[in-house]
Design goal:
The protein is mostly helical. Helices cover 78% and strands 0% of the residues. The chain has helices at 3-31, 33-43, 45-50, 55-71.
Length: 81
């Protein structure tokens, strides 16, 4: 295989990995209580608090998870060659 076709195969693989990540993320956000809390927190944290849900633990968890992913502390499904 020449370099051009290898790049095309990698691009196709990366697309499918991204597609899987988007589908799984959507299922988590819409199909779990944790996901619904994240959507509510992102929409209006004050309303979440007024509805009787303490937003601090979930906000900390979401922030920690986001920071770990952005810093590369959690494994990434994409392998760089």
């Amino acid at each position: 295989m020449d370099g051009k076709s290898q790049g095309l195969l990698f691009a196709q693989g990366a697309f499918f990995v991204a597609l899987i990540v988007v589908v799984v993320g959507q299922l988590v956000l819409t199909g779990t209580v944790f996901g619904r809390y994240l959507i509510a927190l992102g929409t209006n944290e004050e309303e979440v608090r007024l509805s009787g849900i303490d937003p601090r633990p979930r906000s900390r968890l979401w922030s920690s998870l986001s920071a770990a992913l952005s810093l590369g502390l959690l494994p990434s499904p994409i392998v760089h060659a």
